[in-house]
Amino acid sequence: MANLIQRSLPAALPLTLALLSSQVLASSHREAPFIAGMPRADATDFYMFRSYEPGREKFVTLVANYLPLQDGYGGPNYFQLDPNALYEIHVDNNGDAKEDITFQFRFASTNNNDSFAVGGKKVPIPLVINGGAINDVNPPGLNVRETYTVNVVRGDRRTGTRERVANPSGAKVFDKPVDNIGNKAIPDYAGYAARHVVDVTLPGCDTPARMFVGQRKDSFAVNLGETFDLVNYKSPAVEFDANAERSARDDLADKNVTTIALEVAASCLVAPGGADPVIGGWTTASVPQARVVNPVPFNTNNATKEGGAWTQVSRLGMPLVNEVVIGLKDKDRFNHSRPSGDTQFLTYVTNPTLPALVETLFSSAGVKAPTNFPRNDLVTVFLTGVAGLNQPAKVTPSEMLRLNTSIAALPKGSQKRLGVIDGDNAGFPNGRRPGDDVVDIELRVAMGKLCTLNLGCAPASAPSGAIRFTDGAFLDDSAFDSAFPYLTTPIPGSPQAVASRR
Amino acid sequence: MKTAFILAALLLAGCGGGGGDSLAGAVTAGSSPAAAPVTMADAFFSSVQGLLGGNADGEPVAVDGVATPAEGLEPQPLN
Predict the structure, then answer these.
(1) pLDDT, tens digit (0-9, with 9 covering 90-100), for A179-199
(2) What three-state secondary structure class fits A167?
(3) Of A140, A126, A147, whose CA–CA distance to A186 is shortest?
(4) Looking at beta carbons, which residues of chain B come within 8 Å of A307?
(5) Which of B30, B28, B24, B66 is nearest to B45 (CA)?
(6) List of residues 6+ apart from A111 with CB closer than 8 A
(7) Rounded to whole angstroms, how far apart are CA atoms B53 and B67?
(8) Distances (CA, A) of A66 to A43, A142, B58
(9) Which among A158, A291, A294 is the nearest to B5, CB-wise?
(10) Confidence bin at A499 (pLDDT 50/70/90)
């Protein structure tokens, strides 16, 4: 059947296929034209879930990943975050589509300017490490030290009250571990990185939080190469191949990413009084509006002069929205937008193009897109939350990840990779856990899975709603740790796992 | 916004031409003359300078009306 589908693709469709394949299924990695040129400010994935580490049941974990497609061997500079950018995680706890709490992260890198004595002269070395030990916070082996500070803003992200986050000792500057350069430079990377998990005091919150920023193995999974190759899937659905969900390679399996992770008491995220347990979350990155390139830099961090108003260039709440929902011409606009203005994008949700494209591609196999317009089932999932599950008591339709913090987490090993559509209400779209396979979930929801459950539409409106579509790159909770920050140790840049070809 | 970054990156509409290590300074007799210097009053450069000094917590301003940057000029040193 799969071969039949492939052979039957109309010859006139390559452009359509290319459009589909170039936009879909990379979570939010390089998803819009402008941000593709600014990887350090490019949000790739956002997670928000009840902590499932034993003993942390009262906490919510928020994870924002940035800087896509990192190869472990990407030296000599590896992957520092942008010292000129503002990275933020926003929480709306009253359903008005405006942030009530914002966590702001700013980064700085300091070049120690380590030198070697060469022929009687001290000459600066060309590396971010100097050969010394790298085994603890701010170790002697770093030539470049990357640090960060965190603010909590209550109210509007720019005009609200802003206070600095500190650790229990009062320190307000935190270290980010250098990337996983390799086993010789950093013999125990997991241990080294773990020493950068810090307890912090959040102003206005009695319960201490935890925080980690650093490189991790990319947590997303996708069959990216075959997607770009005109959706060259061998098995696009379980109905065509019983092993379809595991039939392809995760092309991000050898990639790393940079993670900003916070674990905050749920009671500190919901609105005062706790009457509504639902919160919405999203991450953004902003850069100064003006940038002038320095023709003669005289040190690191001096190649540009930047200033002016923070100007948002990346936005990510629900996964895949800017890839498979927003039209190409509006992708940059979406990244620069706020949830409170999302009515401008409503047509992309009520009349989505993705299901129509899937129908076109697989029409010979009898695949039909849902016929219920406007697609209120998608409005529910992406813009309001599902009533009785994760819809705020009062909600302004807007795109963000919504979590009902009163629904208990399931431990690793018990989570369903398809979340709510497989009966696991602690999973996507009630928040998002690392092991939720959002590609498969959203493919199925887009094709009408919710109609088969009588959620916002009737089964008759979705003839293909029961087909278990998949990209073939399998993901579940077994790929992650059972404790904060859940995302796993990044792939080292050295030694090589496989010998080079001669 | 997008324009601002492109402009800023391309901009460098400074005076140029006067620096001893500039390309303009390396032009030999008989070569095409270097591009004419642009003063600090260049509309594009002034616009970007105005943005650089803006309040970080203010709202970004529209840049659609910013003048088109001049080309063929040498970048200006930054202090």
Answers:
(1) 999 999 999 999 999 999 999
(2) coil
(3) A140
(4) 51-54, 56
(5) B66
(6) A143, A144, A299, A300, A301
(7) 18
(8) 4, 22, 25
(9) A291
(10) low
Helices marked H in A148-195: 189-194
Q: What percent of chain A has pLDDT over 90?
A: 84
Is residue A233 very low, low, confident or very high in pLDDT (cuts 50, 70, 90)? confident
Q: What is the mean pLDDT of chain A?
A: 92
- Output the CA–CA distances (angstroms, integers) from residue A177 to A183, A197, A212, A285, in the order listed: 15, 10, 10, 21
Residue A144 CB contacts under 8 Å (≥ 6 apart), including other chains: A80, A109, A110, A111, A112, A128, A129, A178, A300
Provide the CB-side half-sphere exposure for A486 (13 A, CA).
32
E strand or H helix at A5: helix A2-7
Contacts of B76 (CB under 8 A, 6+ apart): A295, B12, B13, B14, B15, B16, B45
Strand partners, A164: A151
DSSP state of A178: P
Q: Find out whether A192 and A133 touch, Cβ atoms under 8 Å.
A: no
Q: Is a pLDDT exceeding 50 seen at residue A359?
A: yes
Name the residue facing A292 among B2, B8, B56 (closest C-beta).
B8
Structure tokens at A28: 């939010």
Give A458→chain B minimum CA distance, Å. 43
- Of the candidate ranges A62-71, A125-134, A230-239, the one whose mean pLDDT is the lowest: A230-239
Residues of A in contact with B16 (CB under 8 A): none
Encode pLDDT of A124-164 as tens digits. Answer: 999 999 999 999 999 999 999 999 999 999 999 999 999 99
Asked if B2's CB is within 8 angstroms of A292's CB, the reply is no
Query: Cβ distance A78 to A257 under 8 Å?
Result: no
Phi and psi at residue B68, to the nearest 5°: -70, 135
Contacts of A282 (CB under 8 A, 6+ apart): A46, A89, A90, A315, A316, A317, A339, A399, A400, A401
CB contact under 8 A, A34 and B58: no
Interface touch B51/A336, C-beta < 8 Å: no
Q: Nearest Cα to A220, choosing from A435, A428, A64, A23? A: A435
Residue A11 has pLDDT above 80, yes or no: no
